[in-house]
Write a structure and sequence with these properties.
heterodimer, A: alpha+beta, Actin, Chain A, domain 4, Substrate Binding Domain Of DNAk, Chain A, domain 1, Substrate Binding Domain Of Dnak, Chain:A, Domain 2, 15 helices, B: mainly alpha, Helix Hairpins, Monooxygenase, 2 domains, 0% strand
Chain lengths: 621, 176
């Protein structure tokens, strides 16, 4: 495969050094961690051999936080302190969080809701970090070493706030995020590599709380996402909820107390699973003051009461095919992902839309984690011995824009643009002598600002006073390979630059991360200073190693003086890197990074030329 | 860094002309991304990661511009000093405007009559017209180097393309 011949500047592993990296599927209902060992991706089970970790976190006053199976068993007894399906609240405001009944008390907070437990308020980011911490410990125990990083999957349809929240949770759990990877894309990698498939595929992913549909083109070594669509507030949970409502109505029950509600939802989930195998089931739950209530339900009834949910997913499928400019018949195959796709009526309906039975030969619970694991392995620099190599070209799921006059949205980057992507647009001042401009960044497909997700507001100041319309402000949106946005604004009519770069405001600052870490570990368990020092030492080693490899490969791009300057910066960094002054190490790292900037650019230029000249060789050959 | 100031064609290592072999363009794009995509630098230093992101962004922009004939033609006209100014320059020949009115009437009639056959016929007509305009653009740019004439044809092509999308939307509406 041609991609193999490309040299890789910056990749530095010694052949014998395996860098441990994992893929994590941080799901609404269950989470998993997987890794590539001896060339094969595998889900890492817990000490009892269970692959799935229920995404449930229980806060207690008399002991450490409980995560997983133990917490899930307490969900009904201690509903207010046991957080289930926290993914639904990631990066969400109060209105979104309270749309469905839940046992929780939410507290409005800037950027994202917080959940009030008896032992303090928790951000969904902190709750998710607890789950990630358990998975990290599991991985380090079974792989026998420290992780260099993880690929964490997110629903393709996650917006910027939800992605940023996921990345923050990983940081809080002490995980280096190699990449946020879209769940359907991860599934496609696992599936495509397993089957050596070529052609256009659709991935239909119905998880516990989110729905995604992605259309991808698989060609030799390239996974190219053509279009993606979905709903981050629709999942298997909603099917449970319908059964729960049915149970309440049939059982003649009024509004449920939090612990009753949790028990009913649990019983509903069991009934749903049973209905995948049998034509009838019973929903049975103990209700305070009523004792055991048992309600029979048939598969036919269940299908009727959830048909509209299924239809919503199918409408999204059709819209996404239209975005991809493809007819259903042009799709080579449709892959089902997520536990909820076990429902037979769903399989039938999806099969009918595509005119062929859906592919189900990979475990729909595991396929996302497996795909994330192989991508993590690749990103960590462990190319397979057999030459496995591929390139992922993903897209942004929702359009990004700015508010203009009258509450309308001016789209800057359209949905389904391949990332990384940058677009700029010019705006003019609308008043004489205007010296500041307010910018409101939004995400979504609707025309009105009120119908889109508000991402950030910021002000550009220092515009020189001019007549209305004379001031020209250039606003640039940059979306990186994780799908995360940053915005820059620059006044440029008079050559006077006033520029501001913002990350949307809901992301956590380093200080906040430090504070949360401090809170979660207490004061004794971890010394923040030691942690910061260790991080700097690891960074220093990494940079020294990468620079050394770069010099060996492309040292001829430098003249003697440049070479000496870099060597000097390396010596200075090496001199402090094992001492215990984190700030000194940080400063020397910055020096070396600055000193190698031009070198890095030249190496990249060479890599590009080599890549393109490969084409000509192919043509001759 | 000179790589950031290269033209889209230079960046992808392709000859600067209107007629482009799509397969060749795709191959060049994938090769370029294979060398510069941030995934190749996940384990590298911050500087290289940043440069990789800039270059991958440029590669995506170049590919998007060159893949679509209207954008590619507009880009070539602009590079030769004839910006399209599609928003402000809407001057069209009388014949072209009359033609447009005729098409719009045909679309409206077909929509009201729910006549799928007439719609398909109109779509075919537009397709042919687009192909003729593309040939005109190719000739103006690649052979005559007449960018003013090319820009005029591109503006017309954009009108026809946009109208084609409207026809497709009505067709979708009938099918649903």
């Amino acid at each position: 495969m041609a991609l193999l011949q490309i040299s890789e500047p910056g990749m530095s592993p010694e052949p014998h050094q395996r860098r441990l990296a994992v893929g994590i599927d941080l799901g609404t209902t269950n989470s998993l961690v997987a890794a590539v060992r001896s060339g094969v991706a595998d889900v890492l089970p817990d000490e009892l051999g269970r692959p799935l970790l229920p995404s449930v976190v229980r806060y207690r006053d008399d002991g450490p936080v409980e995560v997983g199976h133990v917490a899930w068993e307490c969900a009904s007894e201690d509903p207010r302190n046991t957080i289930v399906s926290v993914k639904r609240y990631m990066g969400r405001g109060l209105a979104d969080a309270t749309r469905h009944p839940s046992p929780y008390t939410f507290v409005d907070a800037p950027g994202m809701v917080r959940i009030r437990t008896d032992f303090g308020e928790r951000s969904p980011v902190e709750v998710s970090a607890e789950i990630l911490r358990v998975l990290r410990a599991r991985a380090e125990a079974s792989l026998g070493g420290e992780l260099v990083g993880a690929v964490i999957t997110v629903p393709a349809y996650f917006d910027d706030a939800q992605r940023q929240a996921t990345k923050d949770a990983a940081r809080l759990a002490g995980l280096e995020v190699l990449r946020l990877l879209n769940e359907p894309t991860a599934a496609a990698i696992a599936y495509g590599l397993d089957h050596a498939s070529e052609g256009v595929y659709a991935v239909y992913d119905l998880g516990g709380g989110t729905f995604d549909i992605s259309v991808l083109r698989l060609t030799k070594g390239v996974f190219e996402v053509i279009a993606t669509g979905g709903d981050t507030a629709l999942g298997g949970d909603d099917f449970d909820r319908r059964l729960g409502d049915f149970f309440v109505a049939e059982g003649g029950l009024g509004e449920l107390a939090p612990d009753d509600l949790r028990r009913v939802l649990k019983a509903a989930r069991l009934a749903k699973e049973s209905l995948s195998e049998h034509p009838e089931a019973r929903i049975e739950a103990r209700i305070v003051g009523r004792g055991l209530v048992s309600v029979p339900v048939t598969a036919v009834q269940f299908h009727a009461m959830t048909r509209d949910l299924l239809d919503r997913t199918l409408d999204t499928v059709r819209r996404t095919l239209r975005d991809a400019n493809l007819a259903a018949a042009q799709i080579e195959g449709v892959v089902l992902v997520g536990g909820a796709t076990r429902m037979p009526q769903l399989r039938e309906a999806v099969g009918a839309v595509f005119g062929r039975p859906a592919l189900i030969d990979l475990d729909p619970d595991k396929v996302v984690a497996l795909g994330a694991a192989v991508q993590a392995n690749l990103l960590a620099g462990n190319r397979g011995e057999d030459g496995d190599d591929w390139l992922l070209l993903d897209v942004i799921p929702l359009s990004l824009g700015l508010e203009t006059m009258g509450g309308l949205v001016e789209k800057i980057i359209p949905r389904n643009a391949t990332i990384p992507v940058a677009r700029a647009q010019e705006f003019t001042t609308y008043k004489d002598g205007q010296t500041a401009m307010a910018l409101h960044v939004v995400q979504g497909e609707r025309e009105l600002v009120a119908d889109c997700r508000s991402l950030a507001r910021f002000e550009l100041r220092g515009i020189p006073p001019m007549a209305a319309g004379a001031g020209r402000i250039r606003v640039t949106f940059q979306v990186d390979a994780d799908g995360l946005l940053s915005v820059t604004a620059r006044e440029q009519s008079q050559g006077i630059e006033a520029s501001i770069a913002v990350k949307p405001s809901y992301g956590l600052s380093d200080d906040e991360i430090a504070r949360m870490l401090q809170e979660s570990f207490g004061t004794a368990e971890i010394d923040m200073k030691a942690r910061a020092l260790r991080e700097q030492q690891v960074d220093a080693d990494r940079l020294l190693q990468a620079t050394q490899v770069a010099l060996e490969a492309d040292g001829d791009l430098l003249d003697a003086a440049e070479r000496e300057a870099i060597a000097a910066a390396m010596r200075e960094l090496r001199a402090v890197s094992q001492a215990d002054d984190a700030r000194a190490i940080e400063a020397r790292i910055a020096d070396l990074a600055r000193g190698t900037e031009a070198f890095a650019a030249r190496r990249m230029d060479r890599a590009v030329r080599q890549a393109l000249s490969g084409r000509r060789l192919d043509e001759i050959g | 860094m000179d790589i950031l100031t290269k033209s889209h064609f230079e960046l992808l290592g392709l000859p600067e002309r209107f007629e482009v072999d799509t397969a060749e363009l795709q191959q060049a794009y994938r090769r370029l991304q294979g060398a510069v995509h941030p995934d190749r630098f996940a384990a590298a230093g911050a500087t290289e990661r940043r440069i990789a992101m800039q270059l991958a962004t440029r590669a995506n922009e170049a590919y998007r511009t060159l893949l679509e004939p209207g954008r590619r033609a507009a880009y070539l006209c602009e590079r030769h000093g004839v910006p399209l100014q599609a928003e402000t320059n809407t001057a069209m020949s009388r014949a072209f405007l009359l033609q447009q009115m005729e098409w719009r009437e045909a679309l409206e009639e077909a929509r009201i009559a729910r006549d799928a056959g007439a719609l398909a016929g109109l779509a075919r007509l537009l397709c042919d017209h687009r192909d003729r305009l593309l040939a005109e653009i190719a000739s103006a740019i690649d052979r005559e180097h007449d960018f003013t004439r090319a820009a005029d044809a591109v503006r017309r092509w954009m009108f026809v393309d946009k109208f084609g999308a409207e026809v497709a939307a009505v067709e979708d509406g009938l099918a649903a």
